[in-house]
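Task: sequence design from structure.
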């Protein structure tokens, strides 16, 4: 589960996560050492740049939202600056130009420019969340086709509203050839699979109407499923217009 970082320390932890390193193809390698094997206080670390072959070790400096190049005046020589965001009066190009002269920097990476990072939820400490159920949900979706994660995202997004199961199936038939090729019973399982878990992911309300089970914390589930859709299936989450079709 990933959130947007809130300061420089959380930015460093964020960068070190497998989620971020897999997207950037850059990962933490270790501290910068001097000639007598002591740890340098600056720059922050060495990173392994895996974007090109052969891989490269690069000296890296982190700032959360730097004001300008003066924030780096005591950081010595480094190859890449990683920041979360930049103020409105500072462009990445201008900062790089200044850092190239001052610190020998070759690249500025602004994480918030990337949709997969900017779309993450703001950091909160959730109350009374059953993380075991969230883990069960992700494990359930990871071994299924994209249509399962797609459906789960829609249903969680609609909570606390009910959804019409027939309308959902019609939408899935039009959206996924795999569902369209099924017989009537198979198509019914596109909804029924969410009842077979323990606890059930959806609850029967009345007639053809169901609702997301609140035991799977819909607010957390939405962001977690969206992350799975982006990372595993390399797809975008469905937009709100789809919800209007099946609610």
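Answer:
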């Amino acid at each position: 589960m990933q959130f947007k970082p809130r300061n420089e320390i959380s930015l460093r932890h964020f960068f070190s996560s497998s989620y971020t390193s897999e997207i950037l193809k850059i990962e933490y390698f270790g501290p910068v050492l001097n000639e007598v094997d002591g740890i340098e206080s600056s720059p922050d670390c060495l990173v392994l740049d895996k974007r090109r072959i052969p891989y490269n070790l690069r000296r890296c400096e982190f700032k959360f939202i730097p004001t300008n190049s003066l924030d780096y005046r005591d950081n010595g020589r480094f190859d890449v600056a990683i920041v979360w965001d930049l103020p409105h009066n500072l462009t990445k190009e201008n900062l790089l130009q200044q850092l190239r002269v001052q610190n020998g920097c070759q690249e500025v990476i602004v994480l918030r420019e990337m949709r997969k990072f900017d779309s993450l939820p703001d950091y909160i400490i959730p109350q009374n969340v059953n993380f075991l159920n969230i883990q069960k949900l992700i494990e359930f979706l990871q071994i299924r086709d994209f249509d399962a994660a797609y459906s789960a995202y829609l249903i969680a997004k609609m909570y606390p509203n009910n959804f019409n199961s027939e309308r959902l199936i019609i939408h899935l038939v039009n959206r996924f050839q795999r569902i369209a090729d099924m017989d009537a019973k198979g198509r019914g399982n596109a909804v029924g699979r969410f009842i077979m878990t323990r606890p059930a992911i959806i609850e029967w309300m009345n007639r053809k109407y169901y609702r997301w089970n609140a035991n799977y914390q819909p607010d957390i589930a939405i962001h977690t499923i969206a992350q799975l859709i982006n990372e595993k299936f390399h797809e975008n989450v469905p937009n709100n217009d789809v919800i209007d079709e099946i609610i």
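The longest strand covers residues 56-63.
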